[in-house]
Design brief:
Two copies of one chain form a homodimer. Chain A is of the alpha+beta class. Chain A has three domains: 152 residues, Aldehyde oxidase/xanthine dehydrogenase, molybdopterin binding domain (Aldehyde Oxidoreductase, domain 4); 186 residues, Aldehyde oxidase/xanthine dehydrogenase, a/b hammerhead (Aldehyde Oxidoreductase, domain 3, Alpha-Beta Complex), CATH 3.90.1170.50; 312 residues, Aldehyde oxidase/xanthine dehydrogenase, molybdopterin binding domain (Aldehyde Oxidoreductase, domain 4, 2-Layer Sandwich). Chain A is built from 18 helices and 30 strands. In chain A, the strands form eight sheets. Chain A has a seven-stranded mixed beta sheet, with helices on both faces. Chain A has a five-stranded mixed beta sheet with strand order 7-15-14-13-8. A four-stranded mixed beta sheet of chain A has the order 18-26-27-30, with helices on both faces. The longest helix of chain A has 27 residues. Chain A is globular. Chains A and B meet through helix 1, helix 15 and strand 25 of A and helix 1, helix 15 and strand 27 of B.
Amino acid sequence: MNQFSIVGKDVPRNDARAKATGSAIYTDDVKLPGMLYGQILRSPLPHARILHIDTSQVASLPGVRCVMTGEDTPKVKYGNWRLFPETQDEYPLAIDKVRFIGDEVAAVAAVDPDIAQEALSLIKVEYEELPGVFDVDAAIKEGAPVIHDYCPSNISVNRKIKYGDIDKAFAESDYVREDTFHVHAVSHAYLEPCAAIAQCDLDGRITLWTSTQVPYIIQCLLASTLQMRENDIRIIKPFVGGGFGGKMELRTWEFCAAFMAKKTGRPVKFTLTREEEFLTGRRRHPMKIHSKVGFKKDGTLTAKDLKIYLDGGAYNAMGPTATFLCGNFGAMLYRYPSYRFHGQHVYTNKPPASAMRGFGAPQSIFATESQMSLAAEELGLDPIDIRLKNAQVTGDTIPDVATISSCGFIEALNKVAEMSDWREKRKTLPKGRGIGIGCYSFISGGVFNWFNTQYPFSAAEVRAFDDGTAHLLTMAADIGQGCDTVLKQILAEAFGLKMEDIRITSADTAITPQADLGAWGSRLTLMNGNAVLDAANKIKAQLFGAVSARFNLNVIHEIECKDGKVYPKGRPDRSLSFGEAVAMAQKINRGEPLVARGYYTPRNKGLVTPSFSFGAQVAEVEVDQETGVVQVQKFWTAHDCGTAINPMAVEGQLEGSIQMGLGYALSEQFVMEGGKTLNTNFLDYKMPSSMDVPPSEVVHIETYEPEGPMGAKEAGEGLAIPTAPAIADAVGHATGYRCKDLPITPEKILRAKRES
Amino acid sequence: MNQFSIVGKDVPRNDARAKATGSAIYTDDVKLPGMLYGQILRSPLPHARILHIDTSQVASLPGVRCVMTGEDTPKVKYGNWRLFPETQDEYPLAIDKVRFIGDEVAAVAAVDPDIAQEALSLIKVEYEELPGVFDVDAAIKEGAPVIHDYCPSNISVNRKIKYGDIDKAFAESDYVREDTFHVHAVSHAYLEPCAAIAQCDLDGRITLWTSTQVPYIIQCLLASTLQMRENDIRIIKPFVGGGFGGKMELRTWEFCAAFMAKKTGRPVKFTLTREEEFLTGRRRHPMKIHSKVGFKKDGTLTAKDLKIYLDGGAYNAMGPTATFLCGNFGAMLYRYPSYRFHGQHVYTNKPPASAMRGFGAPQSIFATESQMSLAAEELGLDPIDIRLKNAQVTGDTIPDVATISSCGFIEALNKVAEMSDWREKRKTLPKGRGIGIGCYSFISGGVFNWFNTQYPFSAAEVRAFDDGTAHLLTMAADIGQGCDTVLKQILAEAFGLKMEDIRITSADTAITPQADLGAWGSRLTLMNGNAVLDAANKIKAQLFGAVSARFNLNVIHEIECKDGKVYPKGRPDRSLSFGEAVAMAQKINRGEPLVARGYYTPRNKGLVTPSFSFGAQVAEVEVDQETGVVQVQKFWTAHDCGTAINPMAVEGQLEGSIQMGLGYALSEQFVMEGGKTLNTNFLDYKMPSSMDVPPSEVVHIETYEPEGPMGAKEAGEGLAIPTAPAIADAVGHATGYRCKDLPITPEKILRAKRES
């Protein structure tokens, strides 16, 4: 990797100083003259027919400027799968029915938030309560209450995958095991609650500042729900305090802010409370996972039959994608000669589950990894050895998915084994202490075009100037994950410039080039990075022509940009400064500025993703024999994200992932009763704090991903996968209790101890 | 002109509703968190050496955050003629010397404006007073005080033009006359005083919102004076309440706001008071004009020898351009077989004169027109006949300047004669009533590249979308003259769309395409309009390809965009909607959005301008025989601006021009004493109000300018020229008094009456 100057170096994040000094402007910090404050009236019932809404008393409250219900809207359903309109099942405000506690029924805008709050109490809604269903078993039972009329089975999405002769493979297996896993919902718990502020200009165009991961998707869906033209909507993403998948759809408050801004002529702002976030917000899909796997005696995998029910809550949200991906994640990481998958997305009367860091993989791979360790035990093999035997390698093909063009999985397995002293500890740790492993593979963005965009998946515009600077414009959304920094690094590297030479403008749909699908599926480094490189290369071609002409070079010379200069390779003495080369290229173009647009769409890359990350993590735990409390002593991680463009940012991702994985494994859960979430604040919802995070060691496995920009692939989500299975494996090692229904609570451990 | 759908139609200005409803954001309306308020300490003396500045007491005043003097700055001189660095004579804050009352000496920034004001009184400046000079005669006298050391003669610019054998031509003339004219300074009196607010981001980049006509020029000059890179500076032009030439240079408060924002880390705003504007602001050049013209007996012009001294005040400002242009204006309008010009720009200890609507032409052409009427009288000809005899026509050449590619001057002369019943009234009006004529020709932007830009003179980016909309991005500065509207019309016409289908983003140097030289010299309609058309045509080429492929058209077909459709000419039945054509072109490009940049630089168009406007105006006056008060009864105007893109906006220009011309002719002047301006408010500075403006009739002479976009040329400044000479001619006709030293005050008329 030493060919790089800036790529691969630790670079402070572009947003670090603004956030540290408090000068970062988040959506709620946007204040416009004459601004109104919006509030949403939500359903108190999990399932009911709306008989009547009376808003007549609201208008009499001084300070109220607007009240709206579903009846006032154009009644257009939305959802991110617009390629399949039948999956779009949500209205901005409920029409006819409410389907979960918190479902949005009406909205008001008033001159201050307290008046808006008071106005909500003046809206009278008459409901006819209907029986609710709260888990997948109840929902798919014959005669269960139907949540959406169009979907009598309550199963909104079916996804099947099959390859190889699976029945034959099981028949010929030496060892087959079947397990059922239950994984639970957890919250994104982003620090910044959702917020949006809309302004309608005098031409009737809408500008919406919103805390989102997907400005372009919001633009499109807001246009269709408002029945406006896409380009009469402008989405601006201010600083965002985390998303983790929870801010990647159009949401009610975005629609209502825009609708009421248009109606009142005044800006309208919504900012959710933490209580609203916990009570009604998106969350990770709970799943019921039934997995059957076959092995040869030596541990070689023969077959896998995977059946997953996703508990989607009241609406599809990102559930179809999770359903789709679970099937792919089930076949990743190891070589499955035959494979069958059936995923079903089930409606229940709960807040919709949706995308959350890992997008189905933390659930699906929890099952994979648990079974690999269980099988190893049964077959008398070391859990790492059974993984090494089946591990995917560079060049492997996943049917219907892709060829793996880079893979450091085996190296990662060997490395964590070595770092953690695995083979010794797995044999010798005393009772109550355990060591466990969890592995992962993840996608670097999606190939599936369910959003049906007409644009390339990623785009970038690069402007190069004769003062030795460049300007990068991209619709990519930095939501705290650091893509502004990474994209600047890629451009700085390509141009041989420094970070301070690059200006970046991002995530403004009226200004930055069409389009970028947003921050999800760990797509930005690879996809937008490739678009940036494409644009940079178009400009470099012009600079190289200028340098070639200036020094009258033989056409065989390759030219490069490095250290602020442009020169024939190996001849830095014959150089122009970057600015001089730009000036010359500009003269060649009779003054026209040097601007290029670059694009990336992953064609010919199968159905799922252009590249795969890999990694392995070992956790060592101590389980208190009296209380059942699990204390993780240490993590060791070895991961392969291709070229780590910004190693410090990758480490940040790892730290955050471990914190999230800890919570997922041990402490976080929604406590619910009859569809109602009972723990709606950070006191009752038990997220690990920084004090709970154990020490951690990490090794970066060096690979070079040919499809990625400068060899890079994903580093943002895969790392969120291995922690829960590693802890579960370590707890199993420490106690003999193998948890198949997350989270691993002290109660479960003690109950298992009692029962054994 | 009936080939157009939107061009040539009255279209409400893009900014009309925002301004009428009060929602327009001007620079002073920009409010940023933690903002400081700046104030400038100005020289109380017209000419002095600065011996010492003591700012030590300022820091002790609570609330003051920054104080700066010229010594703190990088000491880089600025000026718009950067091609000739010797003409750049101004520092952001005075160094060593002050040269006029109001010259900027120091600046402070404080948490509120009152504290900043108080802080100024704590700055102690020790001056050594020097003798001042206050008019050109005194300034160029042998032994006069030297204002700038580099320029012992006080003459900073010499400009000479010569063609034809002028001495022979005078010798062969039947009639030669010589006159000396004095024209005076007037104020731009824009409604919005100058203001600027700067913010320094955490990367050290500056964003400056400023009330300016020239965002790009401010960007460049701010960069050089701060010794920063051009592209680390971003200039945003909010709504601007008028400029008229007074906001086309970098100014002290722009520099100081940026400098102190960088130093304090907080935004810094300056807003000038009206008193500061009148006391120290730029103004129209006073000039002493000596003109000798020769004629044949029949009125045919033979020669002109023009000598002009421009009273530039303390710094060059835009004086070099005015000096340069005066020479060209002197040879425009009529056919001069031989011509000689000598212009001299003279320093005096007064506030710098600079560009003002007409840029030297109101002065130069006042002399031209006065002499034409005087000569007509002497030769026994009708003033209109002598003009008709000498009028320029299409195809005429002005040596070293251009070939006139469209000219409606003769038609305009005939038209005003007819409209005003000229021939009858010139003979029969009773004593005390008079009718007079004034004519003009003006440039449509400049060819001269004294700013030495590396970019095309104008640029536009156009993005076309499949929802049937388009987005226009341009650095062109709408300062109230309506160019945003005109540019949108041009694009709407080119695409066959409606005004509401076009979004425009303008005048943000970090976002809109490099570059545009700004709003001056009536350049934007022609130059930026051409850039917009260039971009539109590049996109149309793609749409036409798509339509041609879609309908399998014979290659001979021409295709057009009209009424929201794209179709082969004459076959609107075979059409795609604009959006469908874009969608298809996008598919052809595998999803890449349709974006194009267009440029315009007036190559091969001589030295001055690519095209010329023409016009004639008749004024009828009544002069009170007792008081000498002149009352204009009516104006008749016939003008040739090529295609009037937005006739309503052209009429607006005419109305404003008449109001300004009235003031210039009759009432406005700076009353000065020892370099000090005494009338510094709208009570004492006598601008005509709307009640003072007489009725007016206008006829638009239809021509088609081949170099202009859709046949257009300038309409913004030429109209400001004829009013003063027309009134002077009418007063002469009414009273026999021919004013050669504007303004035409009652005192002068009565004095002339007494003397005759």
